[in-house]
Design a protein that fits this description.
7 helices; about 210 residues; 5 strands; five-stranded antiparallel sheet; alpha+beta; about 10% strand; about 45% helix
Length: about 210
């Protein structure tokens, strides 16, 4: 099972923060590790090729902007990002296994937060309407991602001992969310459908519709 993620493609397309040789080299090495984790050949990855060119520009004192020669690689990165939107990385990461795997844990921390924000967006929640958290018994083990809002408690967890990876309830255990509802981590493959299910089961208010002009 592969667990490719879009992070290195996005980083390669917008390497604005990679202005020193050390930072660019670190980004390149991390991209190589990510590709290997996804069982891909680093030498064929368009993101790694772009980051390699970026590192070369820094080393040679050249302009760091993409040129026309990079257009094909940029297009490949954009296409890969679009493909990965249909297969959220967190699903593959959890199903692959996370404990005692530093690279996987690093991605799990980031992808879990992204998934929760995406669900919150579908539910019509503003950033100020909820709080994200992450708890783990120790750094080498995968922990629980949580979202807490006025009418919602949502958790994404590694699936251990047969426990489903996604759970939700009312934060105060009030009906109709008085019981913890659970689903396998694979429900994150369709976040709009999951958000609609959560809203329906907890009877959450419908997202505000933009006003007509």
């Amino acid at each position: 099972m592969t667990c490719d993620i879009d992070y290195r493609y996005r980083r390669a397309l917008e390497p604005d923060g990679l202005t020193t040789f050390e930072n660019a080299l670190r980004a390149l090495n991390e991209a190589v590790d990510d590709a290997r984790l996804a069982a891909l050949d680093p030498a064929l990855c368009p993101a790694i090729k772009l980051l390699t060119r970026h590192l070369g520009r820094i080393s040679n004192g050249e302009s760091l902007c993409h040129t026309a020669l990079d257009d094909n690689l940029c297009r490949q990165c954009i296409e890969r990002i679009a493909e990965l939107k249909r297969a959220p990385a967190i699903v593959a990461l959890v199903r692959r296994g996370l404990d005692y795997r530093p690279q996987e844990l690093r991605h799990y921390r980031r992808e879990g937060s992204r998934a929760l924000r995406a669900i919150a967006f579908q539910l019509g929640l503003e950033h100020t309407d909820y709080r994200l958290g992450y708890t783990t018994p120790q750094e080498s083990l995968a922990g629980d991602h949580t979202l807490e809002a006025k009418q919602l408690y949502l958790r994404i967890s590694p699936e251990r001992y047969g426990e489903p990876g996604v759970a939700w309830r009312n934060p105060h255990w009030k009906p109709p969310g008085a019981a913890m509802r659970k689903a396998p981590i694979t429900v994150l493959r369709d976040i709009p459908a999951l958000a609609a299910r959560i809203a329906r089961e907890l009877k959450l208010p419908s997202p505000a519709q933009p006003g007509l002009i």
